[in-house]
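Need the bound structure for S-adenosylmethionine, inputs here:
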Amino acid sequence: MQYLIKTLFGLESVLAQEIAMLGGEQIEIQNRAVATVGDKALGYRLVYQCRTALAVLTPIKTGVVQNEQQLYAIMHSISWDEVFMIDQTFFIDIVCYSDLFRNSHFLAQKCKDAIVDQFRDKYGRRPSISKDGAIKINVFIKADQVIISLDLAGAPLFKRGYRLETGPAPINEVLAAGLIQLSGWDRKMPLVDPMCGSGTIIMEAALLSRNIPSQYWRSDFSFMHLNNFDPGLWQNVKEDARPRLSGAVPQLIGRDINRHFLNLAKTNAAKAGIEGIQWEKGDFFNYLPQSKMGMLLFNPPYDTRLSLNDAIQFYSRIGDHLKTNFSGWVAWIISSHLQAIKRVGLKPTKKIPLYNGPLDCRFVQFEMYSGSKK
Ligand SMILES: C[S@@+](CC[C@H](N)C(=O)[O-])C[C@H]1O[C@@H](n2cnc3c(N)ncnc32)[C@H](O)[C@@H]1O
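Answer from helper R.:
Posting the output first, comments after.
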């Protein structure tokens, strides 16, 4: 089977590594996606365990379409009752990059009609449509090429099910997992998010270091509603991925100046049953490290959703604090404030372009050598 795993811009290489670890073959990196091939179990593993995947698609038909009628015809040519039962609800997700078509909503209608008409002609009844439908069908059109795929997860995979409460500017779970993997954190050294908000980065680090599957808390995926669902295979996949602690867990510290945000983080971790994270209320500028080396990984306010009185001064204070007090440590900062991040005043050792939602960001590494390297 072919799989196309979608991700965020900049995370393709870490996603490809995850897919390789899960047994994917013929891995090919694309723009915001990685293609691979494998058996049905691989599909279940990709959904359950890929931390940097947003969606796992499996193409079922490709073709050429010049107009809506041809799109209807190609959708109608698929035997939908072999894919799912009439009592399931479904939803069409259209992604269209084509001058041949103007109205995506109308295209989705056409696709839906093709499926509904086919069921009605055959059974005299039709399946219902629902935005949260059990079956999610992805229709991707580029110029005159169409790929019709089943979305195996359904709801996007950044919805892990562990985060019930969020702060005002939470980072996407997939991005958080990607940042940790891009940083090269060894899963052993202390990891501190000194501005952790609702704690997503530290939670994703806890999942990674404890080998907890990213979808451990989710119980419903689209693939379970397909006719070809294999419950025994799914049980085996879950059993194989059962969290197993290997060695000591690393020290994880989430701190924030805002008690309310920190309480959200604590509540999320407690509800998920994740123990051993140090949650501390405090101002970063008064925080001193408790060990000789470690990693700081954080997204400070960008002055967009969370405002700052003086962003340039705030980032330059971050730099001063790092230089003065964190020698031997590595810091990774993600920010869309490209001017302010330059004012950290340390020489970046790595700079990775990423997006946080619509915001063009840089994920920047600073290494604080003893004696400071300006
Ligand atoms: C962009 S948010 C972080 C969001 C977080 N990554 C999440 O997923 O929820 C920035 C956080 O920095 C915190 N903050 C701002 N100034 C701070 C300071 N001086 N010390 C510690 N935390 C601070 C804010 O309270 C806010 O929670």
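Comments: The first helix runs from residue 12 to 21. The chain has two domains: 2-151, 173-213+244-367.
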